[in-house]
Model the fold of this input.
Amino acid sequence: MPERLTSGIPAFDEMLRGGFVPESAILLRGAPGTGKTTFAFQYLIEGLRQNQPGMMVSFEEFPESLYRDAASLGWDLKAFEQTGLLHIMFTSPEVFLHSLASPESSLIRRLHDHNIQRIALDSLTHFTRLTTNTHELRDIYNRIINGVRREQLTGLYLGEEMRSDFTVDEKGRLSFIVDCIVLLRYLEIDSAIQRAITVLKMRSSDHDKQIHSFNIEDKTAPHDPRIHIGPPLQGKAGLLAGLTERRIISNVRSTQ
Ligand SMILES: Nc1ncnc2c1ncn2[C@@H]1O[C@H](COP(=O)(O)OP(=O)(O)O)[C@@H](O)[C@H]1O
Ligand SMILES: [Mg+2]
Done:
């Protein structure tokens, strides 16, 4: 097993001191449009390059929009699927939970038959619809994360950061269950909007504590990163910690 799993974004791997810890649970949180799905495909497409099969589990209702958005970034997902190294599953949170717990399910068979090592769930926020009870939600998160771990997968869990969902997520204690938390944000800096990325937590490893700007660009070569990370934002201490209304333009006011 590799010591670390590369993300497909070399500068981000440096922020993680080499990449993701194998078989860990990574929460990638951000408001809509911050780049979570793009990041997840980057991670899975890097698996293609490393010969580590991956699966995207999407709870979105419109599969075609996923293919179209990826195509706009120069990724032909159907061609990647034909290699047998990328699997895309459209399902519901209920069916996914049930399948993960059933050794005979087509999900588990697919994971085993194709030796899948990387998985991304887009998004965990869909599970908040299953219950309003916070203990139950915590149990659901545990079942997902432990099930994925049992299958020896490195799991990237996307989390929509919306004000109401965030509260429910926190009651589910998601940030305590995962090993690594990556935050994507829109920041208003000097009257311009920038995308920012930071690693909030990484169990059993040192990591970059700074906030980096990043941007999303389409490239023609299939393996070129679409996410480009810039240098740390200097002199912007407290940018995320403070989360002032003036600076944050996403609809999240506070992570506290
Ligand atoms: N071809 C492209 N070139 C540059 N940026 C793009 C392109 N396609 C999409 N984007 C950017 O990617 C963002 C969408 O990212 P996405 O991964 O879908 O976000 P999320 O999953 O967090 O909602 C959009 O805000 C858009 O600005
Ligand atoms: Mg998305």
